[in-house]
Amino acid sequence: MSTPSRESLSHYTPGARLVDSLGIVGFFAAAALNGARVLALGAEAADSVTAAALFAGYLGADVASGTVHWFFDTWLSAQTPVLGSMFVRPFREHHVDPLAITRHDFVETNGSNCLATVPILLAALAFDPAAGALPRAGVVFAVSLCLGVFATNQLHKWAHLPERPPWLRALHATRLVLRPDHHAVHHRAPYARHYCITTGWMNPLLDRIGFYRRLELGISALTGATARAEDAQLG
Length: 235
Ligand SMILES: [Zn+2]
Ligand SMILES: [Zn+2]
Hints:
Order of helices and strands: HHHHHHHHHHH
Helix content: 55-70%
Distance between the termini: 23 Å
Bound molecules: zinc ion
Number of strands: 0
Strand content: under 5%
Largest sheet: none
């Protein structure tokens, strides 16, 4: 999930900054509450179930980032009420001005994804990780997924930085996060490959099986809509 360039579609108002700030506080509070419940289990939670749920959550965040990104790159219009100004235009303007995201501070970069994940983390609080492997896996998956979604816009921003500090070059070399050279594939017209922007790990598979092209064919058959119909207008 990503809103790369809100500043270019409108001013980042103090009200929007306040809402984003509250979202970030809520995100860290809800993530910490969930994480503390798992950590309280101690060695009992240090097993393959927890490791698998952690990995699945991080992979899930990459798929979520790609799917949301693909949806707003491909469908609806910048003129669509509410969603158009909030999501469609920022995603498509990011293709025109990829460096705008690098001018956003921490709150503007990460607020919207924090707001989006708080409900998932609150729902996870309804499950007791001490009750068994399955609820524990569910809570760990939810926390990992939400941490990955939270990190997505920051990782996307870092992949666009014109000057990368040594620590960021080292992080990119680990391949644990989205790398600039990998993400650059998406920024070649017609901007229809490598949609995933958390780690990019899922991109080769999703591109190879034509995952998003198949979804587009299905949606076009059902609705009659044309994929990327508005791209020409947005230049
Ligand atoms: Zn895009
Ligand atoms: Zn980008």
